[in-house]
Amino acid sequence: MNRFRIMSLDGGGIKGTFTVALLAELEKMTGKNLVQYFDLITGTSTGGIIALALGLGIPLGDVLQFYVMRGPRIFPCTGIHRRILTAIRHALCPKYSHDVLRNCFAEVFGVRKLGESKCRLVIPSYDIVSGGVHLFKTAHHEKFRQDYLVDAVDVAMATAAAPTYFAAYSRNNGLRLVDGGVWANCPAAVGIIEAIGYLRRSPTEIDLLSVGTTASPYDVPRGQGNGGWLLWNKEIVELQMRAQVDGALAQCEVLTDHRLLRVDSIVKPGRFTLDDPSHIDELQALGEQTARHRAEEINSRFLCEPVEPFKPHYEVISCQTAVHIY
Q: Which residues are catalytic?
């Protein structure tokens, strides 16, 4: 049977260091270019950044250096007094700089377009004007005539614009987009639906590799479940994110008849946060270690033979007009 292989990459801010280190170590161990072994890649927020890099052929070693070198610029660690001022500012304004984030993305993606990807991509975001999901897609269906001309930098900005951390990303057409993690932090189901709904693949044909950004056992403190906002505090956000991921994975298990492979690492609660770059070296080491433990399983299930090369319906040319190529 002709299998359809999907890679799904979770969101998680700077914890994406774990993901890219894991993928880079897999390539090193297997000697295989991962993007050649997947029919579709979907990624949210930090996972979307990595998905874009994979599709555009940016070496994973370079992507890892993006996190190591630019992570502290995007999420600056400061002294105690500065942290207090930042916390006060965060009550009314985004915590981090939109311009710094864009400049860092521009250094990596340059002027490349989404349509230059060598693999089908689906990158989630959310439209806060219309109140609806927004998916950036390569031209892997004849209906997809616009997104492939969007700058990769703009796609990255939209999927990574986490509310309160960064300003919403504004498009010239009036769209205001925020981090796809508000509805699909684990975009595994997004990939499956794309394969079934637009690419006409049967669920029985799909194999899914889902990669997380580390996870912690969730435990509601005694009495908190009956409390108000003061007792729940930020725990409610962590609960919602954890529940969304668990729900998505459970649905994918059913849809694929358990042909889902989840790769992640369980860590102590609070060990890593999405905007603390002080543990980047530990995240990198943990990602590489996880890759070594799971490489044989991933290789046997997903890396046996390359997929057929992706042929988009439309390609990017200098004048940026749509060209139907088949």
A: 45, 179
